[in-house]
Design goal:
Length: 285
């Protein structure tokens, strides 16, 4: 690795990937694990930077590459984490690697959550399922840097075991973050609310004109959140969605992630709802 930072290097040569080893594996929910990676080269380790909301392409030779959000705090240089659901070729192979396994990292890519631009804002983070992975980077950054007025996390999952990062909620709450969870289907272990994550939104929007929404999850959920928030007085350009589309090159060449005039890998994944509201109306876009 050469150059002042990995962000700069990936702009210079976005095809270049860097070898890393799996330093720890934390089970999060069935089929989902958080992998802490460490670059093999000291220079890369020292210079790599990312912003909350960006993603890396994780490459396993002979298998393929997958876009995965960085889930650790961008201000904590000692940690580089990705939370991954095993659903296919790359992610299944990653799950089989184990501690010390070698992964190649290309990135970071994409647009970040606006976490450096919310100092006087109430930030409401709305997450459906695994969407919380890229938002965890934002939560940890906002907590550590005291970069906004307040942080509220609304996290929904199909079932209780699908809620992510439960072991961290006490620390988040101790740092002043309000954490509310909801599930679609309860079981005997669950005593919290049952319903959709949008059901939690009304209580979280006490001062809509001073609120910024960061939302990540399935498209219909994000559109529902955006419409509900805007209906209650949040400005459309204060609602940010993180889009997930199949992607391959990550540098706006291959066209796989084309979304109207946008490439999700370059112009997203984080986009203000105001910019994409019309595109989100088109099924399969
Ligand atoms: C910006 C961005 C950030 C992301 N962040 C994360 C993250 O933090 N964590 C995470 O786990 N995922 C994340 N993803 C999603 C991840 O990139 C995809 O799940 C990726 O496809 C996984 O790669 P894979 O090779 O393991 O799966 P693939 O082999 O590509 O399979 C993915 C899915 O497609 C199905 N599939 C594969 N091939 C076919 C086929 N021929 N016909 C029909 N169905 C098929 C599989 O059954 C599976 O359900 C992110 C995606 C984007 C765009």
């Amino acid at each position: 690795m050469s150059g002042p930072s990995s962000d700069a290097a990936s702009r210079e040569n976005p095809w270049r990937s860097h070898a890393a080893r799996i330093r720890s594996i934390v089970p999060e929910s069935p089929g989902v694990q958080t992998y802490e990676l460490e670059f093999e080269e000291v220079l890369v380790r020292d210079s790599y930077r990312f912003a909350a909301g960006q993603f890396n392409m994780l490459y396993l030779p002979g298998i393929g590459e997958a876009a995965i959000s960085v889930s650790s705090n961008p201000a904590d240089r000692s940690s580089l984490a990705h939370t991954v659901r095993a659903v296919g070729n790359v992610t299944d192979a990653l799950a089989r690697l184990g501690l010390g396994g070698q992964v190649f990292v290309r990135g970071p890519f994409g647009t970040p959550w606006p976490v450096t631009d919310v100092i006087d804002r109430n930030v409401v983070i709305v997450a459906g399922g695994l969407g919380l992975a890229s938002q965890r980077a934002a939560i940890l950054f906002l907590m550590a840097e005291r970069a906004c007025r307040s942080v509220t996390v609304l996290h929904g999952a199909k079932r209780p075991e699908g809620l992510l990062y439960g072991r961290e909620y006490d620390a988040w709450r101790a740092a002043g973050v309000a954490v509310h969870t909801i599930v679609n289907e309860a079981d005997a272990s669950w005593s919290g609310p049952v319903g959709l994550v949008t059901d939690l939104l009304t209580d979280a929007l006490r001062d809509p004109s001073a609120t910024t929404i960061l939302c990540c999850g399935p498209d219909p959920m994000m559109v529902g959140v955006a419409k509900a928030a805007i209906g209650r007085g949040v400005a459309a350009d204060d609602v940010f969605l993180s889009l997930e589309r199949n992607m391959a090159c990550a540098v706006a060449h291959c066209g796989l992630c084309q979304f109207g005039p946008l490439f999700v890998c370059r112009d997203g994944p984080v986009l203000p709802y105001e910019r994409i509201a019309d595109l989100m109306r088109i099924p399969q876009m």
